[in-house]
Amino acid sequence: MAKDESMHYVYILKLSNNSNYVGQTSDLKNRIKDHNKGNTNHTKKFLPVKLIFYCAFESKKKALNFEKYLKSGSGKAFKKKRLI
């Protein structure tokens, strides 16, 4: 992997209402901090959030595809059975 390339992460958060949020980022630490600071519209009403799963990909495209899958019907079932 070239020096200017970074990893891309797909992550699952547990929200304070016990629901889950799936997202992707190239800077996992700062993204989680942003969630907990209330800087993300989808999660700011459910603070604090807790990181419960993440995985890394070498390409953004693969990360986006996996995020999209986890938000699909079969992906939700996979997430529930295997990841959380």
Question: What composes the largest sheet?
Answer: 3 strands, antiparallel
What strand line-up does the widest sheet have?
2-1-3
In CATH, the architecture is 3-Layer(aba) Sandwich
Helix content: 25-40%
Tell me the strand percentage band.
25-35%
Enumerate how many helices there are, as a single number.
Answer: 3
Key terms for this structure?
84 residues; 37% helix; globular; GIY-YIG endonuclease; 3 helices; alpha+beta; three-stranded antiparallel beta sheet
What does this structure look like?
With 84 residues, the protein is α+β, with helices and mostly antiparallel strands. The protein contains three helices and three strands. The chain has a three-stranded antiparallel sheet. A hairpin with a 5-residue loop joins strand 1 and strand 2. The N and C termini lie far apart (30 Å).
How are the secondary structure elements laid out?
Blueprint: E1 8-14, E2 20-25, H1 28-36, E3 50-57, H2 60-70, H3 73-83
Antiparallel strand pairs: 1-2, 1-3
Brief synopsis:
By secondary structure, the protein is an alpha+beta fold. The protein has helices at residues 28-36, 60-70, 73-83, and strands at 8-14, 20-25, 50-57.
